[in-house]
């Protein structure tokens, strides 16, 4: 019984110190921040969208 308890204790200690799952959480957090940044940029461009698109069109077609 003592041998089994020490085996389980070692297993639990090893699992507690395992950092492999932390990478997944960090990647998910970074992906969420990137999505928030893209939505903020999209919203800002949408508010100015007509002016930006017209400016690009005038620059492109004005040189032809």
Give a description of the structure.
With 64 residues, the protein is an all-alpha fold. Helix content is 91%, strand content 0%. It has helices at 2-16, 20-62. The longest helix has 43 residues, at 20-62. The radius of gyration is 27 Å and the shape is rod-shaped. The protein starts with a helix and ends with a helix.
Name its key features:
single chain, 64 residues, mainly alpha
Beta-strand percentage range: under 5%
Order of helices and strands: HH
End-to-end C-alpha gap: 87 Å
Mean pLDDT figure: 81
Number of DSSP helical runs: 2
TL;DR?
Helices cover 91% and strands 0% of the residues.
Topology:
Layout: H1 2-16, H2 20-62
């Amino acid at each position: 019984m003592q041998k089994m308890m020490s085996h389980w204790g070692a297993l639990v200690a090893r699992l507690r110190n395992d950092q492999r799952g932390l990478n997944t959480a960090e990647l998910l957090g970074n992906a969420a921040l990137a999505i928030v940044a893209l939505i903020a940029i999209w919203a800002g461009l949408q508010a100015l969208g007509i002016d930006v698109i017209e400016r690009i069109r005038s620059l492109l077609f004005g040189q032809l």
